Amino acid sequence: MSMGLEMDIEDTEEFVEDHNAELTTEALQDLHMEQQQEVAEELSSGEETVDRKGSIPSEDIMELLG
Questions:
Q1: What pLDDT, in 10s, does the model give residues 18-30?
Q2: Would you say the C-alpha torsion 39, 65, 9, 6 has a positive or negative sign?
Q3: Distance of CA 55 to the CA centre of its chain
Q4: Residues 6+ apart with CB under 8 A from 34
Q5: Measured between alpha carbons, how far is 28 from 56 in angstroms, rounded to an integer?
Q6: Whole-angstrom Cα distance, residue 17 to residue 11?
Q7: Region Disordered: what ranges (predicted)?
Q8: 63 vs 36: which has the higher pLDDT
Q9: How many CA atoms lie within 13 A of 37 on its CB side?
């Protein structure tokens, strides 16, 4: 059954690219929220130093975002 919609390979590739970018952005947002929560917990527990082993350099974030 056809609905009169046509897609070519370029349309498909564009859709996949856009979808991957959205997932990447969502993953970065989740990671950022987790890091904020960890820092807040460390500060509330009285720790003076913040462990940054889970941080991501800005360069890596920019590369992921393209």
A1: 777 776 788 888 8
A2: positive
A3: 13
A4: 54
A5: 10
A6: 10
A7: 34-66
A8: 36
A9: 6
Instruction: Please report the pLDDT score of residue 30 as a whole number.
Output: 87
The residue with tokens 């820092």 is: 39
Read off the pLDDT of residues 1-57 as tens digits, 9 standing for 90 and up: 556 677 788 888 888 887 777 767 888 888 899 999 988 888 888 755 545 566 777
pLDDT of residue 50: 47
DSSP conformation letters of 8-60: -HHHHHHHHHHHHHHHHHHHHHHHHHHHHHHHHHHHHTT-SSPP-TT---HHH
Distance between CA atoms of residues 36 and 48, nearest Å: 15
